[in-house]
Amino acid sequence: MPTTGSCLCGAATFTLAETPKHMGACHCGQCRKWSGGVLLSVEVAPDAITISTGETITAFKSSDWGERAFCSACGSSLYFRLTAPGPMQGTYYISAGTLDAGDPALHEELFIDEKPAGYALQGQHKMITGPEFFAMIEEAMKPQS
Ligand SMILES: [Zn+2]
Ligand SMILES: [Zn+2]
What we know:
Elements: E1 3-6, E2 13-16, E3 22-26, H1 29-35, E4 39-44, E5 49-53, E6 57-63, E7 66-71, E8 77-82, E9 92-95, E10 105-110, E11 126-128, H2 130-141
The structure holds zinc ion (ZN) (2 copies).
One zinc ion is lined by residues 26, 28, 30-31, 39, 111.
């Protein structure tokens, strides 16, 4: 089932080919600053999203491997997009809160070693530390032979 999403003011809208079933949480310093707390996001392949109205979408290059897009009219954090070369290039990590429907289950927590002590997410799911995450990224970005 396709689903739609938008920023808070409605100037930026998009459609996902499938309603996401899983989401990840990230506690890294960049995600916390960008989202205002923990970032909850759903992974979407580049060809599985259609931006319907995107005039206000502004992208900020937040690292050598990705950019973060927000609505310049209302400030909503919309998505992180992987820009580094490799098989995952172009993958979107859409802020779960922008989705109009669906209730994705929490699948994993990234940068669990950087999580502030003041809160915890419930349920059984994968926990990945910062060093483990960077090792995974390095592996994923290796050219396929
Ligand atoms: Zn907006
Ligand atoms: Zn993060």
